[in-house]
């Protein structure tokens, strides 16, 4: 469908982020606003302080744990249309983390979909991505270069399990650094397919794991490594920890260990070596290059706006394929920081 | 090829040296000798010549994927490596089924080396056909090889350890066999791993016998007459091996340093065959040792050896004789070995390069303590005390050989930067940089890692975290408050350091909680130490 040039844009860029004038709401605003529609609970998308929030039903628990239980959060089931001002809004699974949503907005300027962050690989800890037809598609581009292409999850999980096992056989613990919302729970849910051996986690991950459990996600049983009595041995155990714990005094309790990092960033050898993890696991919650292209194709969009990470090369590549493209700047330019 | 690529990956994906050694040992035990020979070639840092320029790899990648040039460039700017960029991008190509994978040796000898004489168009067709059945990892290794850039993250020492593990040979044997020129043939690898003696074994040194630091009062050693006393020279401990007409000089790190010191080789030609001497390579002029920093100019210098030999002359200061007329005499008492050494060197010492480490004559321990105080003026590090009846042992065995070093140089310096340690200390800020005052500023003078107790390390760690002024990556700039007494072994001018001075083996002796930062030493004080050291 050709773009209707005379129609106003459904969303515009403002100093607070993407804004829908006809509906009077922002999407993932980085400053407090009257009404915020949130794609998912990661820190670069969900900021505290807004007067009202709308998010997908399964994500409400995570948002409450981040912002406090008295925050005005309106959960909306996936797929249910909601009239807001002059537009109709619905949320659709993005497959990124629990409760992650694509925001579909139908207004006078046509149908827009803001995908937020998304992935196409199966993930037992959240609902699978559903392609939504639209005129304008706002896509993430965290890994928008052809070097990024993920191996299948089963292979990666076998790598992680094998690493844990070989460390265990040498009496070492395995410390897997990963993001506290999404990656940790995905790993725990994947591991639960093959074992019921409990894993330890950094104390700050517990509330987020609880939020997943509340939504019925089956995961390995976990214990807080932070709350164990002094002198507890972690030999042979798996410990999940956020990256910010690396190099802090907290690590001392873990004793002899091997450390690994689960992130799409680990695809590049130089990054692996520079960060000096014992192991890098290329397990990402973002779309890789082929998934970005496939998804853009499936939306049928005639205009694609790229945001986050490698937005410029993705936009240029699509433009050279004859597509109408643009780039949306964000306040968060830590490339793949939350992967 | 796949086995070698997996080995590359195993080495690349661990920071543990033990794991790297284990992976290599497994490879050497399993791989056919022809492949293992090439693996040793690559693992020890040898490289093929660049057979294909990176620009060609870029063009072939474009042709194979249909991607525009600019996006491959853009990818390169993220990856920082041409071969890896290509391998990652080529990952979108299906892997063509291959029923007869080629082993590493065939890849190198039949394929890769043949690129040299091919036209670019033929090269392109060949390489694109070659990579089709390879997985991402093998494509990466192949592209690294043909661009002459394959580097593996292991030191020669680790390769030697792995070969020793796989073959059951002593490390020294493998190290010796890997020295000099060799070509990676299956026959060569078989002889490398052979438990039968080979011609190369003639060059092997004995394990070094090491002294322990004297911590008790010297008088506890009993009768001074039972001890052989020598100066502790500050050079490179080495064994001079002459067997089968060939001369080899080995450093304590089991490295052959023969070619660095041609004057020692020349002097050793006068030695009888079947001789092994233990001694110290020393920079030496006008009957006096030069500082260690002078000798350093001759280490690591591959070229201009002759020119450097004139600028910094060296001697081999001999302590001991371990083999005579081809007989291992390490079990003889030191007293007797010294007599044999005297007899030998009187004949050979004509050039003055082969010298005997003189015996320090003394009647009492008090007198010896007095002589020890002259150490710095004599350009030595202190004294060696060896029991006259002792055999030449292996490694560091306490009781018979002691080193009685002089107190190191000391300064009081201010802690200015801290960063995390490595390994077990990765969570603690244990690597410190210290400064001394110069024109109202603290100029970095030394880095030191050791010397504090665990309690002190913990206390410092907490203090640093609370008093960080600025952060540069892992490095924290802290408030200039804490003064430490630093000890070091040597001092030399260095244009590479901002202070103009490099210190050797710095360590923390004491946390001077009693001393305010303003009263720490100045750069001028340190320069005076340098002058007194004759540097």
CATH class group of the largest domain in chain A = Alpha Beta
Fraction of residues of chain B in helices? 25-40%
How large, in whole angstroms, is the Cα Rg of chain B? 28 Å
Spatial order of strands in the largest sheet of chain A: 7-8-9-10-11-18-19
What does the average pLDDT of chain A come to?
A: 93
In short:
The complex is a heterodimer of chains A (339) and B (535). Chain A is an alpha/beta fold.
Q: Could you characterize the architecture of this molecule?
A:
The complex is a heterodimer of chains A (339) and B (535). Helices cover 21% and strands 24% of the residues of chain A. By secondary structure, chain A is an alpha/beta fold. Chain A has 2 domains: 12-147 and 285-328, Metallo-beta-lactamase, Chain A (4-Layer Sandwich); 153-281, 3-Layer(aba) Sandwich (Rossmann fold). Chain A has a 7-stranded mixed sheet, with helices on one face. Chain A has a 6-stranded mixed sheet with strand order 1-2-3-4-5-6, covered by helices on one side. In chain A, helix 1 links the parallel strand 5 and strand 6. Chain A is globular, with a radius of gyration of 20 Å. Chain A starts with 11 loop residues before the first strand and ends in an 11-residue tail after the last strand. The model of chain A has no long low-confidence stretch (mean pLDDT 93). With 535 residues, chain B is of the alpha+beta class. Chain B has 3 domains: 2-146, DNA ligase, ATP-dependent, N-terminal domain (DNA ligase i, domain 1); 209-405, 2-Layer Sandwich (D-amino Acid Aminotransferase, Chain A, domain 1), CATH 3.30.470.30; 409-532, Nucleic acid-binding proteins (OB fold (Dihydrolipoamide Acetyltransferase, E2P)). Chain B contains 20 helices and 22 strands. In chain B, the strands form 5 sheets. In chain B, strands 4, 5, 6, 7, 8, 9 and 10 form a 7-stranded mixed sheet that branches. In chain B, helix 3 (33-43) crosses helix 7 and helix 6 packs antiparallel against helix 9 (136-146). The mean pLDDT of chain B is 89. The chains are: A alpha/beta (339), B alpha+beta (535). The interface between A and B is medium-sized, with 29 and 30 residues.
């Amino acid at each position: 469908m050709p773009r209707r040039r005379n129609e106003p844009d459904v969303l515009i860029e403002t100093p607070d982020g993407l804004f829908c004038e006809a509906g009077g709401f922002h999407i993932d605003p980085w400053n407090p606003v009257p009404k915020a529609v949130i794609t998912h609970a990661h820190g670069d998308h969900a900021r505290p302080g807004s007067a009202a929030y709308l998010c997908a039903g399964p994500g409400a628990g995570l948002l409450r744990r981040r912002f406090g239980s008295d925050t005005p959060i309106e959960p909306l089931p996936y797929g249910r249309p909601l009239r807001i001002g002059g537009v109709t809004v619905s949320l659709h699974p993005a497959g990124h983390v629990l409760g992650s949503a694509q925001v579909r907005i139908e207004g006078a300027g046509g149908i827009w979909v803001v995908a937020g962050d998304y992935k196409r690989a199966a993930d037992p800890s959240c609902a699978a991505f559903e392609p939504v037809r639209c005129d304008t598609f706002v896509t993430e581009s965290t890994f928008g270069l052809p070097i990024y292409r993920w191996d299948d999850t089963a292979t990666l999980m076998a790598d992680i399990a094998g690493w844990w096992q070989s460390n265990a056989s040498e009496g070492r613990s395995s410390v897997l650094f990963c993001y506290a919302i999404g990656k940790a729970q995905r790993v725990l849910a994947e591991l639960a397919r093959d074992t019921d051996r409990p894993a330890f986690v950094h104390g700050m991950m517990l509330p987020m794991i609880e939020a997943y459990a509340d939504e019925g996600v089956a995961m390995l049983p976990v214990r807080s490594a932070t709350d164990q009595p002094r002198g507890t041995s972690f030999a042979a155990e798996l410990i999940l920890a956020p990256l910010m714990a690396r190099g802090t005094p907290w690590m001392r309790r873990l004793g002899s260990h091997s450390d690994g990092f689960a992130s799409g960033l680990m695809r590049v050898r130089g990054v692996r070596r520079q960060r000096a993890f014992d192991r890098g696991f290329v397990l990402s919650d973002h779309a890789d290059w082929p998934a970005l292209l496939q998804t853009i194709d499936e939306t049928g969009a005639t205009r694609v706006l790229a945001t986050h990470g490698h937005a410029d090369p993705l936009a240029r590549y699509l433009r050279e394929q004859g597509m109408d493209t643009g780039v949306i700047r964000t306040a968060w330019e830590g490339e793949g920081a939350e992967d | 090829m796949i086995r070698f690529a997996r080995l590359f990956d195993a080495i690349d994906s661990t920071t543990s040296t033990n794991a790297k050694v284990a992976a290599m040992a497994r490879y050497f035990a399993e791989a056919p000798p022809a492949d293992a020979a090439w693996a040793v070639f690559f693992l020890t840092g040898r490289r093929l010549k660049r057979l294909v320029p990176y620009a060609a790899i870029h063009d072939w990648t474009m042709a194979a994927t249909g991607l525009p040039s600019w996006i491959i460039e853009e990818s390169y700017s993220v990856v920082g490596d041409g071969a890896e960029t290509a391998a990652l991008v080529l990952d979108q190509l299906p892997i063509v089924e291959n029923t007869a994978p080629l082993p590493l040796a065939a890849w190198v000898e039949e394929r890769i080396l043949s690129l040299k004489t091919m036209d670019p168009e033929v090269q392109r067709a060949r390489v694109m056909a070659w990579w089709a059945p390879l997985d991402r990892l093998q494509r990466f290794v192949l592209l690294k090889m043909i661009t002459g850039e394959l580097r593996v993250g292991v030191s020669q020492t680790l390769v030697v350890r792995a070969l020793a593990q796989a073959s059951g040979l002593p490390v020294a044997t493998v190290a010796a066999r890997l020295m000099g020129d060799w070509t990676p043939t299956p026959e060569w690898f078989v002889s490398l791993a052979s438990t039968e003696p080979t011609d190369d074994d003639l060059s092997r040194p004995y394990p070094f016998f090491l002294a322990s630091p004297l911590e008790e009062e010297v008088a506890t050693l009993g009768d001074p007459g039972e001890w052989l006393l020598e100066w502790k020279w500050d050079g490179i401990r080495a064994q001079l091996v002459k067997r089968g007409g060939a001369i080899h000089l080995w450093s304590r790190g089991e490295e052959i340093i023969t070619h660095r010191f041609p004057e020692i080789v020349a002097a050793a030609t006068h030695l009888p065959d079947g001789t092994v001497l233990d001694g110290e390579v020393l920079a030496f002029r006008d009957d006096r040792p030069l500082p260690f920093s002078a000798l350093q100019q001759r280490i690591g210098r591959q070229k201009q050896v002759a020119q450097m030999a004139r600028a910094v002359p060296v001697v081999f200061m001999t302590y001991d004789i371990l083999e005579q007329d081809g007989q291992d005499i390490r079990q003889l008492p030191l007293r007797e070995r010294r007599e044999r050494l005297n007899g030998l060197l009187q004949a050979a010492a004509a050039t003055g390069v082969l010298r005997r480490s003189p015996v320090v004559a003394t009647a009492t321990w008090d007198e010896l303590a007095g002589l020890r105080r002259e150490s710095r003026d004599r350009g030595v590090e202190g004294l060696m005390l060896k029991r006259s009846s002792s055999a030449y042992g292996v490694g560091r065995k306490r009781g018979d050989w002691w080193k009685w070093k002089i107190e190191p140089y000391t300064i009081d310096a201010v802690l200015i930067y801290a960063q995390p340690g490595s390994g077990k200390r990765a969570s603690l800020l244990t690597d410190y940089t210290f400064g001394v005052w110069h024109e109202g500023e603290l100029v970095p003078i030394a880095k030191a890692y050791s010397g504090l107790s665990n309690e002190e390390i913990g206390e410092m760690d907490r203090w640093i975290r609370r008093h960080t002024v600025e952060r540069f990556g892992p490095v924290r700039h802290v408030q200039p408050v804490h003064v430490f007494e630093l000890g070091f072994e040597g001092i030399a001018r260095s244009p590479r350091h901002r202070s103009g001075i490099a210190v050797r083996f710095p360590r923390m002796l004491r946390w001077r909680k009693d001393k305010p930062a303003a009263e720490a030493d100045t750069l001028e004080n340190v320069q005076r130490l340098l002058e007194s050291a004759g540097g």
